[in-house]
Amino acid sequence: MQPVLEVDELQVHYPTPRGPLRAVDGVSLSLQRGERLGLIGESGSGKSTIALALMRLLKPPAQIVGGTIRLDGTDLMRLSEDAMREVRLAQIALITQGAMNSLNPVIRVRPQMIDAMQAHGVHMSKSAWDARLAELLRSVNLKPEVADLYPHQLSGGMKQRVCIAVAVSMRPKLIVADEPTSALDVVVQRRVMQTLRRVQDSIGASVILIGHDMGLMAQFAQRVAVMRTGRLVEVGDVRQIFANPQHPYTQLLMDSLPSLRSRAVAPLASEVVA
Amino acid sequence: MNSDTATPLLELRNVSRTYGGGGGLFSQPGTVALADFSIVIDDQQPSIVAIVGESGSGKTTMARLLLGLETPSSGRVLYKGTDLHQLKRQPWAEYRRNVQAIFQDPFGVYNSFYKVDHVLTMPLRKFKLTRSREEEQQVIAQALRAVGLRPEDTLGRYPHQLSGGQRQRTMVARTLLLRPRVIVADEPVSMIDASLRVTVLGNLLQLKRQYGISLIYITHDLTTAYQISDRIVVLYRGRVVEEGEPDQIVNRPQHPYTRLLISSIPEPDPDRPWADGELTSEDEALGDELELVSTGGQAVGGT
């Protein structure tokens, strides 16, 4: 079966006086329909740059200087800006850590949700909109009345749920979730991630979950890609990565995981940090 | 935890802290940040007490009360049995040296115009702990090595030239120089990259084992609390919902909030799925309530 997403040898550079900084340095990955991929790496590894490149939302001076991104066979790099605008949300949706802050706090939820869909040519009667919004909000465990509230009346978790509702409103093929819950407390994080998982499953979308929390990856992803300094150092099935990490950096990430299963932190300080 | 024989080193006794609600004509009822909270730090036996709570739990208010940065609305903050605000000059200076703080963002503690050395030499000079420059350098180098840093890689640099982990370990080294009796650490590892967190936690554990320093470890992260503490106190909306030994809290949680917290932690194990049948509908109802915390209690949330 043809993958939904095929990224081949993607190169993103930031020009600097000392030559280009290779933020993404030849990354290739593919995603099957409905598959959940975790993209993990520490700050500065280039994982968020990939998210923006997939959306073609990189801001200059960052520039895609090589490689291809195919969504269902279409080369996104060759699309005009207008055509790309059609693709965003309708075919690839992005949910970020700060997504909840992208809601305008002084405009009610309802017109903001409707705007997003109208921009993609969805038009319907008022009563049909009512029904559509109610359905979308229920799908993320919110009551339909949330549509009539202002974002500032909602908790962080509720706002992130509204963003998920918008993200799935056009039934995209791919959802890119860049640390969607890192601003939320752990109880709310679980509940929001479980909601994302459920709606993703129900519309059959693929997901790339970007983050640095190995626990979250273990809970959500089927496959994990580990990134370091612009390159993928390891890609594999989630169980395989957790049971038998190959790359030294992945092993380091695994070794540094505190768990509730054993008390293993040693009071040693002899190891010297370079 | 309470020692019957000796006066505790540091104690919060039935402390409450309320914000707002000043009693003016139009004032709203105040917000209770911390309600009837008590904690005792023994003078003889060093221990690590973890205060675990999420946003709005009152954990940072509690830290500020212990550090004397905040005064209680009711109840008492006692250092060796005396109210903080009644401490005379000498015992106040002793309190200031014996009770030290480590904060979440060590960058804020550094002055970016000074080299890292500054935060290390300052306390030595302020408390007149060394007699000569040579002794100063010697003591500093020793403290840095004790937390696993190479003095030659650390000294002479500016704060931004160190990684977050190095900056936080330098703070632990600074604390070591002062040899306090208690450290109040508010989220000391949450801004450090995952691969270095364990090392800093190890440093904190070492402070207790090797130097007999007690630690009040304030965190949202029950997992790291479980790793290093002798006792865990779970705070929820300003109140203690449960406290006990780490194994008891983690393996036999009694309060619905603690159960919810534990089963929400994403275990780094694909074969141990989240909240796998451990949660009752009441537990999840509490989760609904939690998500509504910042909406002023409007019932518009989960279905």
Question: Could you walk me through the main structural features you see in this protein, from its secondary elements to its overall organization?
Answer:
The complex is a heterodimer of chains A (274) and B (303). Chain A has 274 residues and is of the alpha/beta class. Chain A has ten helices and ten strands. In chain A, the strands form two sheets. Chain A has a six-stranded mixed sheet, with helices on both faces. In chain A, strands 2-1-4-5 form a four-stranded antiparallel sheet, covered by helices on one side. In chain A, strand 1 and strand 2 (21-31) form a beta hairpin. In chain A, helix 6 runs parallel beside helix 7. Helix content of chain B is 37%, strand content 20%. Chain B has helices spanning 59-66, 89-98, 117-126, 133-146, 151-154, 164-178, 194-211, 222-228, 246-251, 256-264, 281-291, and strands at residues 10-19, 31-41, 48-52, 74-79, 82-83, 99-102, 182-186, 214-219, 231-236, 239-244. Chain B starts with 9 loop residues before the first strand and ends in a 12-residue tail after the last helix. In chain B, strands 6-7-8-3-9-10 form a six-stranded mixed sheet, sandwiched between helices. Chain B has a four-stranded antiparallel sheet with strand order 2-1-4-5, covered by helices on one side. Chain B is an alpha/beta fold and 303 residues long. Chain B is globular and about 65 Å long. In chain B, helix 4 (133-146) packs across helix 6 (164-178) and helix 6 packs parallel to helix 7. Chain B has a single domain, classed as Rossmann fold, CATH 3.40.50. At the A-B interface, helix 6, helix 7, helix 8, helix 9 and helix 10 of A face helix 6, helix 7, helix 8, helix 10 and helix 11 of B.
